[in-house]
Design a protein that fits this description.
Rossmann fold, two-stranded parallel sheet, 9 helices, mainly alpha, 2 domains, two-stranded antiparallel ribbon
Amino acid sequence: MKGSNLNAAEKSDIAKKLSRFTGLSEDYLIKAELRVTLPQFQAELQRSRGLTVGRYDGRYSGPTYDLLTEYAEFDPSFSAVLGAFTAGFNSYVRSELKFAGEQSYKVLPGEPSENWDWKHHARGSEFPGAPNVETDLIHEMIQNAQLQVEVENGYFDMATPFFATEYTMDHLLLPAEVQNRVHLQYYSAGHMMYLHEEDLAKLKGNVGSFIDSAWKP
């Protein structure tokens, strides 16, 4: 919070704590002014081993092409499953759906996000702002007494970190009886927790139980 007003002793103390939490060296953290971006973290954490850490799933790692790079050059966790996802989808649409088109299939194309209209008219605001839908969720949960929300969290997810989700859910400022309708589940995997076979079964069980309990009076 103090930013540039931190003195040397304070900065050193924070660097020690951040180093313990993140695994990054104190020297690196101080050079980064205590503000390390995710791509920097991916590139730096296992640089000494010549590895880049996964974004979607921090359990994955892959060879770093340029050991001097500041930012991660790719996401090993995405590269590891890209071929399987592509083959699985193409097999499904051709073998089961009998779709014979020749269109290209992209697992995660950049064009939609590049051309997306990110403006959002949040409830209670006259003007469009950042795409934060917290106020929409708050409104719907208060208006609809039957609405239940479950969030699935992967501990190794660095794309949508589970603690950020916890923080968001805990700061909706909902009445206690409404807050009780927010449920969080946790998995020892990443963004796509179903890649871990044990968590695939756990996810299926959690979602099934949630649906069963949510629709019953």
